[in-house]
Specification:
The chain has a six-stranded antiparallel beta sheet with strand order 1-2-3-5-4-11. The N terminus is likely disordered. The radius of gyration is 21 Å and the shape is globular. Helices cover about 30% and strands about 15% of the residues. It is built from twelve helices and 13 strands. The protein is an alpha+beta fold. The relative contact order is 0.17.
Length: about 350
Amino acid sequence: MGNCFRTDHQPILSVCLENFTIKYPIGRGGYGQVFKVQHNETGQIFAMKEMKKNLIITKKSVPTVMNERHLLGLLNHPFIVNLHYAFQTRKSLYLVVDIMSGGDLRYYFTINNRIRSEEALKFLAACIVIGLEYLHNNGIVHRDIKPENLVFDCNGYLHITDFGIARNSNDDNSYICSGTPGYMAPEVLCSQNHGAEVDFFALGVILFECITSLRPYIGKNRKEIRDAVLDKQAKLDKQEFLLWSSECLDFINRLIMRKPENRLGANGIEEVKGHCWFQGWDWVKFGCKTIESPFRPKNEDNFNLYQVSKKWEVSYERVNNLNSQKLFAGYLFDVTLFRKDSSDTRSVE
């Protein structure tokens, strides 16, 4: 397990499992566990995502996993979770990324139920907006913005993670219906071609949920949620939410518009940043992370302990043949190969 596995035509990089000391598990994914680790040479702390190859193949998720690895190898921004290393053994894939010790937004909801301060809500929204600005400017639609995919760093800033179903905004996406139904835009639920507007819709759903503890369109399954979307336009009424400003409610209501052409952000990210709710907001100072966050974590690690402690049990077929291993060719990555004068030069621009 410790030796770096090499598929055909791949370079052998210096990084492998032995280069890290595993501290303890901090989360679970769809294909395995996530660990807090320390790089033995540099002493840096990271999160290491372990994914079982057999389970990935059984779930027919090879394209999703390889897509995420490809995009992470191109992206680098202060408001996303960045990739540092990727390697594999015969049985597993490993992604070594920025550690986000503040936990995810869903975990915050489980503890605090909802956001109670408008300034805190605006801070949260601004984090997501800046992350989306970087992605959209580089032609990428995330397509799965939700509380579980928004994680706090130790200073309380949110970062976007999980790029498995992200796509190029210029591609025909009408055949792609994957995502999380409660946060999926109507055009995705109805199998229509879609672009960056779907991420703005998801942002609106999250902010709606922050205020009400409910999503604007609910149902037991995708069909029920789609029917709810088609039945009536959701809206936050000022008379019902007296503690929130009209500008805040308008911002959210315009994000969750059912028709993408009517949605805030349909004319670009500047339309979102220029909304009156953000009047006077110092985007430059915020982008440099010099504004104190209202979400400062109190502990070193803020993870869902119940989720972490659950026993990992999977049932899948063995698959160790060479043809199956070739499915993961090109997975290796070492960020130090992209560094010049101690700066990361990755970009998709």
